[in-house]
Amino acid sequence: MLILFGPPGSGKGTQAAFVSKLLSIPAISTGDLLRAEAQRDTPQGRALRAHLATGELVSDETVGRLLARRLAEPSCRRGFLLDGYPRTVAQARSLASLLKDRALPEPEVLYLRVPDDHLLKRLSGRQQCPVCGHIYNDYFQPPAKPGICDNDGAALTHRSDDREDVIRERLAVYHRDTEPVLSYYRNGIFHIVDASGAEQQVHNAIEPFLLPAPALTR
Ligand code: ADP
Predict the structure, then answer these.
(1) Does 82 reside within a domain?
(2) What is the rounded distance in angstroms from the CA atom of residue 77 to the CA atom of residue 79?
(3) Ligand 1 in reach of 18 Cβ (< 6 A)
(4) Is the Cβ atom of 6 under 6 angstroms away from ligand 1?
(5) For residues 131 and 154, is the Cβ–Cβ distance under 8 A?
(6) DSSP label of 66
(7) 20 to 30 A from 101, CA-CA: which of 64, 162, 180, 196?
């Protein structure tokens, strides 16, 4: 199994889709799992929605529960890619025991490295089409007409946590809680990728680490 590791805005979602297609394995984003859960019109759904808008991490227990449920699905049997997990050293430890219980090999980690000042622009300029899912950026990949999707004319939306104050908080949380996970994996199968370039450049930088396909299952 693979872990795509990197700060918010490092392009994990975009690269996860690319890797998933290349290796024919599902890409599992804990951010997406949480946002789907937060859409529910229940007290828990509403509480989660409010929590996500602050940029703080969700508890290890909640994320662990959602992830375990997803990993139990048959589509994960032939390997999977994690995007946004583990985000704390405690999560890295739970993942290690989950893999051990299932007799799966240790994970292969791809670290997408991007400097903070660049991340700020990527995140504050990010807009997504609610219809086709395409992601634009006001600074790097603006749509032809501001605020409108080139593909289907839908009005583009910002994620609730892509406001500048929340972005600063997410970066602070990343440095404080998530960066220590790097030392946890340093001695394992660990690759550093310069992810500050354009999407295709990052694909090209990642690809050599994936071919031949890494050991996803035993
Ligand atoms: P980004 O990496 O751009 O911040 P994600 O979609 O990965 O975006 O995550 C969005 C939010 O979901 C995070 O700010 C955090 O609140 C929550 N989240 C996602 N993954 C985890 C995780 N593994 N542990 C705790 N919280 C998480």
Answers:
(1) yes
(2) 6
(3) no
(4) no
(5) yes
(6) H
(7) 180
Q: Is 111 contained in some domain?
A: yes
Rounded mean pLDDT of 35-62?
94
Q: Which residue in the block uniquely carries the two structure tokens 């409108």?
A: 148
**∠ Cα 3 94 49 (to 5°):** 75
Asked whether the beta carbons of 107 and 3 are under 8 A apart, the reply is yes
State both tokens at 202: 């990052």
Q: The CATH number of the domain where 17 resides is what?
A: 3.40.50.300
pTM given for the model: 0.88
Burial (CB < 10 A; 0-12, 13-18, 19+), residue 176, is exposed
Task: Quote the domain boundaries for residue 51.
Answer: 2-115+178-210
Mean of pLDDT values over 86-96: 96
Using alpha carbons, select from 206, 160, 165 the residue that is nearest to residue 11.
206
Catalytic annotation present for 12: yes
Residue from 78, 87, 102, 145 carrying the catalytic annotation = 87
